[in-house]
Every structure is written in structure tokens, then in C-alpha cells.
Design a protein that fits this description.
This protein is of the alpha/beta class and about 290 residues long. It has a domain of about 200 residues: ATP synthase, F1 complex, gamma subunit (Pyruvate Kinase, Chain: A, domain 1, 3-Layer(aba) Sandwich). The protein is built from 5 helices and 5 strands, in the order αβαβαβαββα. It has a 5-stranded mixed beta sheet with strand order 3-2-1-4-5, with helices on both faces. Helix 1 runs antiparallel to helix 5 and helix 4 crosses helix 5. The two termini are about 50 Å apart.
Length: about 290
């Protein structure tokens, strides 16, 4: 009886765990759908800003530089805020570790995602800046805006000139780590002549270019953040799907074991009743002893 009660308790606990896993899986699926819808618009916006940035660069005079000179370089990594997403963060760190070890002393490291930042510290990669990653698709834009503001401040004050961006992207049924160069800007200074009149601007070309660089950094980081957000939830969905299948299998095995134990207990009771009945019948049918 004690074993049966223990099995019943374990089965009940597995059923409750299955409900939690199902809820997490459903939330991840919903977040993936929302992120997928947003990614298309963000991609179009990024292309538009890239074109506008190229137009603004063409307005500079020949003696003006697009990017300020600076010796420092850095990396920006988009990871996960929470766990339950399998090896999502580990895959990112495997890609960025070789590049981090090759960097010079003047190097900064920005990590987006509390879980990813903690894993970086465990591996000896100390982030200079660690910020939380959005846990809802509506917060991705705010996260990217904050990182872009910090990055543009360092760029405009000549603290950094080279920046690489690392994030996960969902390709087919797998996650692929993307490496993108944000800075220095690789833009053409001269564009082919157009029959149309040049654009009319109300600000200095340098001021216009700085504003477009700030917007370009935001667009690139927002795209990376949304791709990373989708990939994180995809990894979490797959992890919860595997966990749900394992829980169902374990619960089924325990249920089968409980049924077998109950059947064995019933069989044992029946055998005891039969043995007792046979013993009682033998006693009644025994001949009484003769008296002297």
C-alpha cells in the first residue's frame, strides 16, 4: 500500500508538472508568432535606414570623415534573459569566446540578457555592461533603443570605432549564430549622379549624418534583438516539447507500474482467500479422534 501511495503521488506531481510545461510551451509559441510578424517590418525599416544613411554620407565634403578614429573595439552579444531554453546561451558563447580571447586590452563587451551575462562570468568573460533582455516582444524595441543610445554615445565621443554584433537566428529547424559588423561604417562616399535635384536639408550634413548613424545603430540592434528573441523562444519551445514528451512517457510508465502492483495485490489477496478457504474446508472434513 505504501508503494502504491508513493506511485500515486509521483503520478500526480508529474501531471502538475506537465501542466506547467504546457503553459510555458504555449507562451513561447505565442511570443514566436508575435516576433515573426515584427521581424518583417523591422527588416524593411533597416533597409530604408541603410539607404538613407548612404545618402547622408554622400553629402559630406571630401575632407570630412564618416567614422571618428578610435583605437577601441568591442562586441555586443544578445542572449537569453531566463533559462529553460536548452543550449541557447552556450551556443552563443562558443562562437564569441575565440573572438574575445583575440581582442586587445582596449576592448569592451556588452551582454544583453541576465542569464547570458551570468554564464559569461562563469566562463571568465567579464561584461563591461550587462542589461536585461526583453521577456515580451513588445519590450524588444526598448531594449534595443537603450543599447543603441549607449553605443552611439561611445561612438560619438571617440571611445569606440569597431563593434561586432553576435546574435542567434533561426534558420530552418536550427539556430545559427550571426556575426555582424556594426562599426566602422562601410558606406560609399560618392553616388552616381541622378537626374533629380539633390535633396533639400535644413541641418548641416554632419548633423544629419550623426542622426542617421544613431538611427542605423538602433535599427541594426532592434533587428538583432528581435531575431534573438524569436530564436530564444524557439529554443524554449523545443525544450518544453521534449520535456513534455519525457513527462508523458514517465507518467505512462508509472501508471503501468501502479496498475501492475494493484493487480499483483489483488491476485495475492485472492490466493490468500483461496488458501484460507481450502484450509478451513480441510479442517471441517477431518475425522474426529476415537475415544478410548
Amino acid at each position: 500500500m505504501a508503494q502504491e501511495r508513493e506511485l500515486t503521488t509521483r503520478i500526480r506531481s508529474l501531471d502538475e508538472l506537465a501542466e506547467i510545461v504546457t503553459a510555458i510551451r504555449a507562451i513561447a509559441a505565442s511570443q514566436m508568432q508575435q516576433a515573426l510578424k515584427s521581424s518583417a517590418a523591422i527588416g524593411r525599416y533597416s533597409e530604408l535606414i541603410r539607404t538613407a544613411l548612404s545618402d547622408a554620407a554622400s553629402l559630406l565634403s571630401a575632407d570630412e570623415t564618416i567614422s571618428p578614429k578610435a583605437a577601441n573595439g568591442g562586441q555586443v552579444l544578445f542572449g537569453a534573459e531566463h533559462g529553460l531554453c536548452g543550449g541557447f546561451n552556450q551556443q552563443l558563447l562558443r562562437e564569441i569566446e575565440p573572438y574575445s580571447q583575440q581582442q586587445a586590452e582596449k576592448h569592451f563587451f556588452i551582454v544583453v540578457g541576465s542569464r547570458a551575462a551570468r554564464l559569461c562570468r562563469e566562463r571568465g568573460l567579464q561584461p563591461d555592461v550587462a542589461v536585461p533582455m526583453a521577456t515580451h516582444y513588445a519590450g524588444v524595441t526598448g531594449t534595443a533603443h537603450g543599447v543603441a543610445a549607449d553605443l552611439f554615445h561611445m561612438f560619438s565621443t571617440r571611445q569606440v570605432a569597431r563593434v561586432e554584433l553576435f546574435y542567434a537566428m533561426h534558420v530552418g529547424q536550427a539556430l545559427k549564430v550571426q556575426r555582424q559588423q556594426l562599426l566602422p561604417l562601410d558606406l560609399p562616399r560618392e553616388k552616381p549622379r541622378s537626374p533629380q535635384s539633390p535633396p533639400i536639408i535644413n541641418v548641416r550634413p554632419r548633423q544629419l549624418l550623426d542622426g542617421m548613424i544613431s538611427e542605423y545603430l538602433f535599427a541594426a540592434l532592434e533587428n538583432a534583438a528581435m531575431q534573438s528573441f524569436f530564436s530564444e523562444n524557439f529554443a524554449r519551445f523545443r525544450t518544453m516539447e521534449a520535456a513534455h514528451q519525457n513527462i508523458r512517457k514517465k507518467s505512462s510508465d508509472l501508471t503501468t507500474l501502479a496498475r501492475r502492483m494493484r493487480q499483483e495485490a489483488v491476485t495475492s489477496e485472492i490466493l490468500e482467500l483461496i488458501s484460507g478457504a481450502e484450509a478451513l474446508s480441510s479442517t471441517r472434513n477431518a475425522k474426529p479422534l476415537s475415544r478410548c
